Amino acid sequence: MEGVKESYERLTKSDEFRGREEGCFLSSVSLMSDYNKLDKAAWQMDFFNPATKKILSFVMKENIQIKADQDMFQAFSVQELDVSLVKVEFDDAMKASETILKGEFNDMPGSVIAVLQKRNNLLWIITFVTVSMNVACIEINAETGEITSKKCGSVMGQRI
Questions:
Q1: What is the 3-state secondary structure (H, E, C) of 2-44?
Q2: How many CB atoms lie within 10 A of CB 23?
Q3: Domain-wise residue ranges, the chain
Q4: Share of the chain above pLDDT 90, in %
Q5: What is the mean pLDDT of residues 112-127?
């Protein structure tokens, strides 16, 4: 799987990206995958346009796919993400999250949603839907590696 920084660099040099970045900034990087297919997953790079409050997304497959003008659900202020500040790579964040999931929560991953986002701090937000139908969410500071939050609860209506 291609790293976040490599995906971002490939995107910014691509024809698909040229001319589209005006007024927008990178707001999040994410992926969603079955756990056992994670090595084939592609990053989605989301760019927020403050003027229109819309998201422009690029899915970083071999051929870059574009998802234009998506409405933004804003539960928090959208902050610019600078991938050059990421010190904890995705693989390291996953290892730390898996250790918590398997150790503290005594569960196994079924699928994974990973988000890199700035919310005051630069965060990896790793969410697992587990084989026992739980949802585990682990937040890791992407600059320091510190675990900032860890929660686990049932998919069947219990809030985490």
A1: CCHHHHHHHHHCCCCCCCCCCCCEEEEEEEEEEHHHHHHCCCE
A2: 11
A3: 4-71, 83-154
A4: 76
A5: 96
* Percent above pLDDT 70 for the chain: 94
What's the one-letter identity of residue 70? Q
Q: Which CATH class is domain 83-154?
A: alpha beta
Looking at 66-150, list the stretches that DSSP marks H as alpha helix, in order from N- to C-terminal side: 90-103
Question: For the segment 82-94, what is each residue's pLDDT rounded down to a tens digit?
Answer: 999 999 999 999 9
Give CA–CA dist 119/143, Å, rounded: 13
Spatial distance between the Cα atoms of 160 and 155, rounded to a whole number of angstroms: 9
pLDDT for residue 52: 85
- Rounded CA gap, 2 and 33, in Å? 14
**Residue 139 burial (C-beta neighbours within 10 Å; 0-12, 13-18, 19+):** buried
Closest to 85 (Cα-Cα) out of 5, 1, 27: 5
Count of CB atoms situated within 10 Å of the CB of 94: 21
| CA gap 15, 2 in Å, rounded | 19
